[in-house]
Amino acid sequence: MGQILTFAIAAALISYAAYVIWKNINRVKEGQCPGGCGSCSKSCGYREENSEGGDEGDDDL
Amino acid sequence: MDKKIKVALAGNPNSGKTTLFNELTGARHYVGNWPGVTVEKKEGGFKYGEENILLTDLPGIYSISPYTMEEIVTRKFIIEEKPDVILNIVDASNLERNLYLTIQLIEMGRPVVIALNMMDIVEKKGIGIDVEALSKKLKATVVPITASKMGNKGKLLDAVVETAKKSDGYYPIEVDYGQDIENKIVETHKLIDHLACLGRFNHRWLSLRVIEEDIEIMNLMGSGQKAYLDPENSHGERYEELIVKKKYEFINRLVDAVVIDKSRDKETVSDKIDKIAMNRYLGLPIFILIMMGVFAFTFDVVGNRLLDLVDVFFSEILANAAFDWLTGAGVSEWLISLVVEGIIGGVGGILVFLPNIATLFFAISILEDSGYMARVAFIMDRTMRRIGLSGKAFIPMVLGFGCNVPAIMSTRTLENKQDRMTAILINPFMSCSARLPVYTLFASAFFPRNKSMVVFSLYFLGIAVAVTVAFVFKRTFFKSEPIPLLIELPPYRIPTAKGIGIHVWERVKEFIVKAGTLIFAASIVIWFLLNYNFAGPAAFTDSFAASVGKFIAPMFTPLGFGNWRASLSLLTGVVAKEIIVSNMSIAYGAGAGSGASLADALSASFTSLSAYSFMVYVLLYIPCIGVISVIKKETGSWKWTGFSIVYQMTLAWVIAFGVYQIGGLFVG
Predict the structure, then answer these.
(1) CA–CA dist B48, B50 (Å, integer)
(2) What is the Cα–Cα distance from B215 to B222, expressed in whole angstroms?
(3) CB contact B633 to A (< 8 Å)
């Protein structure tokens, strides 16, 4: 019983950690801060409203 | 008559310009793009009596200084197209602010007709405007209108046609700028008079623009002529600021003479507060005192008392309950260690700082909602302009106290790219809330009597480093003229409990979500790295994590914290700064259920001086991965992103080294 419970809890914890890491890698790729904080979601709205993002910036400035 | 009367429609944003344009042109307008810019202009032709009128709707602006694209477009049109009449729409309910542009338009030397809009709102407020007196004082026809109803359309167009056809010339009003500036105007006029290329400008306006260091006009001048120009008078006052001041003095006298409103004479509560809070000499010291008060409130009065309660909940109640339940269920020892020491230790180690974060943002929300924070940008404008940035650049810096990611995104509001790049690269020095748990932990452990002042000193150091770096950048990589700050200050008001509640809850929620996701996952990873090596289960000192920590630790020895646990925590802090504390909770074995507090465990590895050096390093070193990502997005450049990482790492090392080594001379 103890071993089954150990396996179940460990599997759940590791799966959750892997999911969080994968999700946060995607968040960072999109230019948001890791952790899913609200201020970044608001910033995403800001990003959409303002077409003047820096993606077209140049290295020679 | 074939000749069209060219009319330029100019005014502040939201003054009712588009409504008036549509009312005058009907459905005959078309939209066209200006070459090379994204700002749109609208043109519409219509017939009024025998006259053909071509109306051009220019972008909404507050002034005609060449700082924004809208201002440049408007100015270029007036100078190059030379409209027969400028139809200036003025929001009568906001007369002072709107008249600033009016004066600038009149000074440009083209005939101006003023459409005094929103008269219905003004009348509802019980305010009267002596239109005739205003017209006389501005030497321009003023027609009161309500653009949405267009009652005086005929009168307005009559005035436009009459002004356009005036054959006896146009003599605009001249604002008296005082002897000092008037002499300077004459002197400058002589200096630039021979320049044929400048012949298309009104000379007085041109001289004023040169004195105000208008970058576009200055570019037309030779370096020899520029050398004669002195931006300051003999009292060290900047001409540019004096001219703005004189213009507003003129406008205030004008408004006093034409507005019939008894309530205007009364000084409002906001005016009384601003007399002190925004005083030229007292403004900055008051801001510093207020921030010191905020930190004292956060750490000495409320935060740390609540911290102890939360700490007891995690390290004793929850940890013991989890330990008892898992042991009773027969779960393996390693999983008990993972849950109790790894997860509850790591996540709980961070959540204990929730009261401090909530208290800090409670205090900051009061400052924001009361209207004081908007004034801070204004107070900082003078300092910021000395370093070459506008006061507007201070707003992203203040936002950086919360999180650097949205703060860096908000730099998009800055007008020129040089200012924006500088503001992006200095923003990570603003201490975000993720760094607060590190300061709270170390300040409470090593400076229990002065913890609020220690934390305040770190925030202050962050601002000082940001300002110094901006000063250097603005004189090397990102040279450009600072842009004057023009913002509307809201009246002071008493913050509502609901407003503050929402602000604080947003921050608390962010912190809890981050603890429940990223910190949770990071704690599991760190626990594994601390408990295993290639051979399987291992003691902390022989683990993967220890190997990495020991490898980089020598780099931090000159800074006073060359131990592997501290070095490792700095490395994991790159993912998110809070992880520094959760990492330490696990690595020092002082997490939940251990019976020992992390503060006690730290005192074996740090002295007060090395603890302060560590906090300085955490404040200044490489930002978290989210910030790095947003710097790449916003600068669009790997070169500047890489530069940002390298120079911050270097600067952090040098300053922490200075703190530890120089501090060592005094502490011994």
Answers:
(1) 6
(2) 13
(3) yes
